[in-house]
Amino acid sequence: MKFIDLTGRRFGRLVALRVYPQRNKYGAIRWQCICDCKKIHKVTSSQLLGGSTRSCGCLYRETRNPGRKKHGHAANGGTRTYQSWHQIIQRTLNPRNARYPEYGGRGITVCERWRKFENFLKDMGAAPAGKTIDRYPDRNGIYEKTNCRWATYKEQSDNSSSPRWITHNHETHNLTEWAKKLGITPSSLHRRLVKWPVSRALTK
To answer: What are the CA-CA distances from residue 86 to residues 115, 147, 160 (Å)?
Structure first.
């Protein structure tokens, strides 16, 4: 194959710097390139010219995990903000979710914009300590910027037109009564119910 000088040429995120002294095991010429992320990467001429390699690998990682690269909230199980968003998506759009009947099953959905976490984060900001997402002022409305806030348990309770009655194992109590029976605070039980189905929240 005729030698082609690629010095200084850009291929995706890679810029060819110089010919690498050692060829690969098949005898192909390799180029020492610098990636836009500043890493040095060795690539053959055919990989560069053919377009099969366009970065040191960072482009693939970003494409495979776009959320983690862009906002950093999804790592290690996710921040409280990411978990709140994920729970919204699951209970409004996933029929297999245990809480779907209470939300998506009765017509409560999430706006198209918030189906991408970055937009949710931009509109709502990070979750403040001690607060969870609340639909307000329309408790029966959809999840969107104009109808949501970060609220304390008391604020969410005040937003409810009536106490939340919960039935489990043929017993029915409101949230405060269940919390007292379990020996935990109402806010702790509320957080459980946001994350888990009723049966787990009352027995975990």
So the answer is: 9, 18, 23
CA atoms of 119 and 128, how far apart (whole Å): 17
Tens-of-pLDDT digits for all 204 residues of the chain?
A: 578 899 999 988 899 999 998 888 888 899 999 998 888 999 999 889 888 888 888 777 765 654 444 567 877 678 899 999 999 999 998 888 888 888 888 888 999 999 999 999 999 999 998 899 999 887 878 999 999 999 987 787 766 654 567 888 888 887 778 888 888 877 778 778 877 888 888 887
| Residue environment code for 80-110, b if the CB has 16+ CB neighbours within 10 A, otherwise e | ebbbbbbbbbbbbeeeebebbeebbeeebbb
101 close to 94: Cβ distance less than 8 angstroms = no
Q: Helix (H) and strand (E) counts for the chain?
A: 9, 8
Residues in the chain: 204
